[in-house]
Amino acid sequence: MDSKLLTDNFPANLRVLVAEDNPTNLKVANLILRPFVSLFDSAVDGVEAVKKFKENKYDIIFMDVQMPLMDGYEATKCIRDYETENNLKPVKIVAMTANAMQDDIELCLNSGMDNYLSKPFKRDDMVRIIQSLNL
């Protein structure tokens, strides 16, 4: 199915944060997402991702699992703890990882992430993930 048709079904005003320390992956995500989201924001490490999460409202966070200062697992834990402490509806968090073995996937899901996206990723991969989140 044409991914353009799939993006037509995305919620209006979709707000996305991409936490990614690799400039190439961040640029690819930006090129893929920017045309059909109302807000594209980025963070280069887990500390910045948590800070931006606390300052803004996002529908989805694409979270690299291996970043400097704070990895994606710890950042997800901080976000989930903050949501619990403040009685917030959980944001959808999607792991972005080159590690796509079953143990790696389970680690992502067990750390509080909602889904995972294998690197390298393409437009259709991101579209399918967003559709699967039922926003």
CATH homologous superfamily classification: Response regulator
How many E strands?
Answer: 5
Mean pLDDT: 89
Number of domains: 1
Oligomer: single chain
Question: So what's the CATH class?
Answer: Alpha Beta
* C-alpha geometry: globular
User: How large is the share of residues in beta strands?
Assistant: 15-25%
Structural class: alpha/beta
Termini gap: 20 Å
Radius of gyration: 14 Å
User: Uncertain spans, ≥5 residues at pLDDT below 50?
Assistant: none
Helix content: 40-55%
What attributes characterize this protein structure?
135 residues; alpha/beta; Rossmann fold; five-stranded parallel beta sheet; 6 helices; 5 strands; 44% helix; globular
Characterization of this structure:
With 135 residues, this protein is of the alpha/beta class. It has one domain (15-130): Rossmann fold. Helices cover 44% and strands 19% of the residues. The chain is built from six helices and five strands; from the N terminus they run αβαβαβαβαβα. The protein has a five-stranded parallel β-sheet with strand order 2-1-3-4-5, sandwiched between helices. Helix 2 (23-33) links the parallel strand 1 and strand 2. The longest helix is centred in the middle third of the chain and has 14 residues, at 72-85. The radius of gyration is 14 Å and the shape is globular. The model has no long low-confidence stretch (mean pLDDT 89).
